[in-house]
Amino acid sequence: MKTLLVSGYGVRLRFRRGLLIVESKNNKQEVPIADLEQVVIITSGVWFSSKVIRKLVEYGVDLVFLDSRGQPTGRVYPPFINKTIETRRSQYASYGTSRAVFAMRELVYGKISNQASVLRKYYYNTRLEEMREAYSKISELAIKAREIELPFENTREELRKIEAEAARIYWPHYALLVPRDLGFEGRDQDSTDPVNILLNYTYGILYSECWKALVLAGLDPYAGFIHVDRSGKPVLVFDFIEMFRFIADLTVLYLVRKGWRPSISNGLLDYGSRRRVIEAFLDFLDNTKVQYIDETPVSLRQVLKKSAYTLASYLRGEGLFEAFIYRW
Prior knowledge:
- The protein has helices at about 50-60, 85-95, 100-125, 130-145, 150-175, 195-215, 235-240, 245-255, 270-285, 300-315; strands at about 5, 10-15, 20-25, 30, 40, 45-50, 60-65, 70-75, 265, 270, 290, 300.
- The chain is of the alpha/beta class.
């Protein structure tokens, strides 16, 4: 077990003799803390002591709190951060330079290429000719993004236009893959249809994973490149997550195409649906093996972490940053 999901009012967490104990009125679960990488609290009403927090930190376990929309509201993780001062000085110094331009192009190239990968994957499942045409057009836009040769601000503006153009192709074709009874007509984060609610929630979980990867790589999550700096907004996380949104997109497609339907109340997933989405997302993240930079196959979680470290190394001038492209 790598991730422990904890939910329910009145649930208690205790630590005893190397075990993390999860107790409710009618159930008791004992998990060796050494087997854990992460504990995710997905509801309010969970009780635990400072001793539990100290032990999680001591064993290097990430403790994450999610709100009802899947957004991380807080986290506690070990202070094992790589080359923080050197990395952040280089990160700040690179803003507006050719190094930042290259990083922006790669991140957007990765995002758009992975949108094409989602449609290509389902083209081979459905053999819909319009799906093939769509992923071909999106692939061309990805190459166009990678080949921009303009100053920093101009590059950022052009990349936004290309992203928008890719989205206009991607989401209508993604909608063709969603069962019609779900009423999904396209991406709208304010929509109350089940698929948009699921996407919002799953992006929230992915956001938490990206934040952790960037911070542990020594990067400042608030100092980005593509998204304009805003006080209190972790814009580097917004930049970085774009390359991995396909993980959430594929998780949601897998669930709804298998016939699963979420339970929703007042525009929010109920506790059981949240748990099902998180389990499916983490299963995909941890058990999907892919090739990354000519290495032996690794999990998508490892790719996410390695990408953050590679970005940090690149900004320090120690190597090349290369977008991750999902191939199955």
